[in-house]
Write a structure and sequence with these properties.
Elements lengths: L3 H5 L33 E8 L4 H11 L3 E8 L1 H14 L6 E5 L3 H5 L22 H6 L11 E13 H6 L6 H7 L3 H15 L7 H9 L21 H14 L11 H9 L4 E5 L2 H8 L7 E4 L8 E8 L7 H11 L2 H11 L2 E2 L8 H4 L11 H11 L10 H16 L4 H17 L1
Parallel strand pairs: 1-2, 1-3
Antiparallel strand pairs: 3-7, 4-5, 4-6, 4-7, 4-8
Helix pairs in contact: 9-10, 10-17, 17-18
Amino acid sequence: MKSKKKWLATGLSLVLAFSLAACSGGDKEKSSSEGGSGNEKVELNFWAFGATGYEDLVKEYEELNPNVTIKFKSSETAEHHDALFTALSAGSGAPDIAMLEVDQLDRFKAAQDRFNNLYDLGAKDVQDQYLEWKWDTAENVDGDFLIGLPTDIGPKALYYRTDLFEEAGLPTDPAEVEALISSPEAFKEAGIKLTEKTGKPFVDSIEMAYRALMDPATETYLNPDGELILDKEGSTVKKAYDYAVELHEAGIVGKYTMWSPEWASAVNTGDFAAELGAGWLKGYLEENAPDATGKFRVATLPTEFAANWGGSFISIPSETENAQEAYDFIEWLVSPENQLKSSQSHGLFPSAPSVYDMEEFTANEDQFFGGQVTAEVFAKAAKDINGVAYRGEKFFPIHQRVLDALSNVQNGGDPEKEWKAAVKDAKDLIAR
């Protein structure tokens, strides 16, 4: 979701050692395409986070299903997942319906016995409506348990300043920019030319340079068995690390920290040229960079950079006594038609590809981006994504240690020494 705190969070310290058996709740008959079960009154508690606009869709569903009442609560991302974990761990107090952010997903998947298997409630009937990689992310390793239905995604693209590209003698048309940066090497060469001509960094930070190859990786720091793999031969993490160092040594990487006041000011005034950002960043720019109106465009990244950053799923804890009614609602909530509504009202990028062909979606010109239909760029990016890597409980502390190493490199540290120190720290974290 588009929430600043969400992207700054370093993750929860969760211990997923649940012992109680799941209460499947999957034996109730589904009664109608709209949801609900006859005339019996049902009350559902729905916990969400961030700015989703789901409260409006909840009201719409209640009008369609007068026997269903849904109590909706939205919290900050960390607070939401913390409260949900506490309730699941205690065995009481969990809601009937709960959102799960993709970066938190693997931690909760490790406790799948505390959730209903949505395959038991009818999810296979709608599987073909969603991007395959997004759907697969919510499955267990065996592929026979689905913890949540897909909501939004965060396909990445290149946000770039046309004024700085023009000053550097580079093309500004999105299609021409896409051709210009068609590979990691071409991306670097374009950056060198821009920085030499303008004196400004091409990308904002070494973190974004690292994420260029890190985010697309289908294997990162850990495997599903919790074993450390970042130091294995051919590690994608090491490749991403080396690429970030390469861009830094080429002199095209800034020292901004995303979401900091200095970064926000630089976005507004054009003190760096490009950002590798997800679709949700579009809304932030529109709201917080008024002086940049008309100066940004969006282009598709090289296929090697194609990745997802963000997004969520909606689950049904096994504690509920109304599993089928809860499922009927969430199937309706994340339908292509309602994903279009969420996209239009709150910028949530759909995971249902049929939305990408809807006229209301493709005809939406973004004035902040000079009238460009940016949705088309992100739709193409979404289809280029291969999958999402396993993260696990200790992903975030290891990730932060690698980022610290790269920061040290920017401040004069030796890249290989910093890498070895980061690997040692990661091993120490795993050994605890």
